[in-house]
């Protein structure tokens, strides 16, 4: 068996179908690691022929590690439910997963370019490079509760083609995710003994978040969507640090 695809889900009935279509016939097995969905996510995945495992969601690193343990392939590709594999990337994956030069050059994993789309089909200017394709024996695990990262033994290569990421699709889902993930972000900062929150820290973190999104990542090029997204990033920073303030005052 050459390639296993691992998809992490939690209440993704609206997105999982198209995700699975984009990887159909690409891998020897598709594993859906579900965090306890209460919608039709698992039903849709099972009908598509994916192997579905339920593992109560704690964090993304734990879900990715669980999938790694279940995967039988020599190579593992991680795809999120709100991502799509383009035909160009598909060809790259098929070619490199079977390339004997990986052994010669000690290539253990590949970074993949990802395009982000907000509020439908509004493409964000910044292209991300993410580690997503791994030689299983070289992947030692994922670490980090929120912004998880892999530990890999060997060299990192890069693939052409793109993952398409349809994130921040509407304000309601954005808000619910922010309220949930800000708890974890705040706790991590509290556990790391972040300096006491003062009045001046709030505008600083909010302006930094806005500047990074609107200016550094060139969100201004996306018009109204860029402005909304950048203001929301500032709001998310505020919620995280307001929660940190709560933790510090309750301690």
Defining key terms:
8 helices; two-stranded antiparallel ribbon; 41% helix; alpha/beta; 251 residues; 29% strand
Could you write a compact summary of the structure shown?
This protein is an alpha/beta fold and 251 residues long. The protein has helices at 16-22, 41-47, 60-70, 87-96, 101-105, 171-191, 201-216, 224-250; strands at 3-9, 29-34, 51-54, 75-80, 83-85, 107-118, 122-135, 139-143, 149-152, 155-167.
Question: What can you tell me about this protein's structure?
Answer:
With 251 residues, this protein is an alpha/beta fold. The chain is 41% helix and 29% strand. The protein has helices spanning 16-22, 41-47, 60-70, 87-96, 101-105, 171-191, 201-216, 224-250; strands spanning 3-9, 29-34, 51-54, 75-80, 83-85, 107-118, 122-135, 139-143, 149-152, 155-167. A hairpin with a 5-residue loop joins strand 8 (139-143) and strand 9.
Poorly predicted runs: none
Tell me the Rg in angstroms: 19 Å
Percent of residues in β-strands? 25-35%
The total of helices stands at 8
> Mind summarizing the main beta sheet?
8 strands, mixed
Cα distance, first to last residue? 52 Å
- SSE topology string: EHEHEHEEHHEEEEEHHH
The helix content, as a percent range, equals 40-55%
- The structure class reads alpha/beta
Neighbour order of strands in the largest sheet? 3-2-1-4-7-6-10-5
Mean pLDDT: 94
Total beta strand runs = 10
Overall, the morphology is globular
């Amino acid at each position: 068996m050459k390639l296993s695809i691992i998809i992490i889900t939690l209440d993704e009935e609206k997105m999982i179908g198209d995700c699975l279509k984009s990887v159909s016939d690409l891998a020897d097995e598709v594993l859906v690691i579900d965090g306890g969905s209460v919608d039709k996510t698992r039903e849709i995945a099972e009908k598509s022929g994916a192997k579905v495992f339920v593992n109560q969601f704690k964090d993304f690193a734990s879900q990715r590690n669980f999938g790694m343990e279940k995967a039988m392939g020599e190579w593992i590709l991680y795809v999120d439910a709100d991502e799509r594999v383009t035909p160009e990337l598909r060809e790259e994956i098929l070619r490199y997963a079977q390339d004997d030069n990986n052994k010669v050059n000690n290539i253990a994993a590949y970074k993949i370019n990802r395009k982000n789309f907000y509020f439908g089909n509004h493409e964000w200017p910044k292209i991300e490079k993410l580690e997503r394709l791994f030689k299983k024996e070289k992947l030692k695990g994922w670490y980090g509760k929120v912004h998880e990262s892999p530990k890999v033994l060997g060299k990192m290569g890069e693939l052409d083609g793109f993952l398409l990421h349809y994130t921040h699709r509407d304000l309601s889902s954005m808000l619910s995710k922010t309220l949930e993930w800000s708890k974890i972000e705040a706790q991590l900062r509290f556990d790391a003994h972040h300096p006491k929150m003062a009045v001046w820290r709030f505008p600083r973190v909010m302006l930094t978040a806005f500047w990074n999104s609107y200016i550094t990542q060139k969100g201004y090029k996306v018009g109204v969507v860029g402005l909304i997204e950048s203001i929301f990033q500032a709001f998310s920073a505020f919620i995280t640090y307001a929660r940190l303030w709560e933790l510090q005052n309750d301690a």
